[in-house]
Design a protein that fits this description.
Elements (H helix, E strand, L loop, with lengths): L2 H15 L2 H21 L5 H24 L3 H15 L8 H15 L7 H12 L5 H13 L1
């Protein structure tokens, strides 16, 4: 079963169970997926569905931070709850040691020697770690390795 099919199935379950918040978040996710499919004019792969989901999680976290800064704890909590629902569709996150090993492996396999090779290394890492790592943290790891 593809990830998109799983999401649709979960929507039906949430609808039957009367889980309004979960249903709302799943519908939002399916709408984002459909929008991306219309833009790309093709059925999305599981990897691309993960990218869409990851983007929505990041948006929720950014919004939560803005609400927190504005003193709106109620809205902050809602945004964080939505992010948690979306996280259920993401694969398990890689441990720091696994990320470090992956970075070292990619740098060695590409022969990267400096910051000019950052794009090449990040391109490969993005493919390998899609949805399983925070790309900002991964980027910082690569920078430290290539600079030092």
């Amino acid at each position: 079963m593809s990830l998109k099919e799983q999401i649709r199935s979960d929507m039906k379950v949430a609808l039957k169970a009367g889980e309004k918040e979960r249903l709302s978040v799943i519908r939002m996710l399916l709408a984002a997926i459909q929008t991306r499919e219309i833009e790309d004019r093709e059925e999305l792969s599981d990897n691309t569905v993960l990218q869409v989901t990851e983007k929505l999680i990041k948006q929720r976290k950014d919004s939560a931070k803005q609400y927190a800064d504005a003193g709106r704890a109620d809205r902050e909590a809602q945004e964080l709850a939505e992010a948690e629902i979306l996280k259920a569709y993401m694969p398990e996150q890689l441990a720091d040691s696994e990320l470090e090993a992956m970075v070292v492996d990619v740098i060695e396999s590409t022969g990267a020697s400096g910051m000019q090779d950052m794009g090449k290394v990040m391109g490969i890492l993005k493919e390998k770690a899609q949805g399983r790592a925070d790309m900002g943290a991964l980027s910082a790891l690569v920078k430290n390795r290539l600079a030092g």
